[in-house]
Amino acid sequence: MAAQNKLFQRLIWLVDTIYSAGHISREEIDRRWATARYNDMHETTYGERNFHRHRETVQEIFGIDIVCNHTTKEYSIQGLDKANGAGMRSWLMNTFAFNNLINLGSRLQARIIFEEIPEGTRFLSTIVNAMKDSRQLYAVYQGYKRAEPHTFLLSPYCLKVFKQRWYLVGKPDDHPEEAEPRVYALDRMVDLTSTDKPFRLPKDFKPSLFFKGQYGVDRSIREEQKIVVKVESYDANFLRSLPLHASQIEMKQDDRYTYFGFYVAPTYDFIQELRKFGPSLEVLEPAPLRDAFKKDSEKLRNLYA
Question: Distance from the CA of 146 to the CA of which of 70, 90, 269, 290 falls in 20 to 30 A?
Answer without folding.
Answer: 269
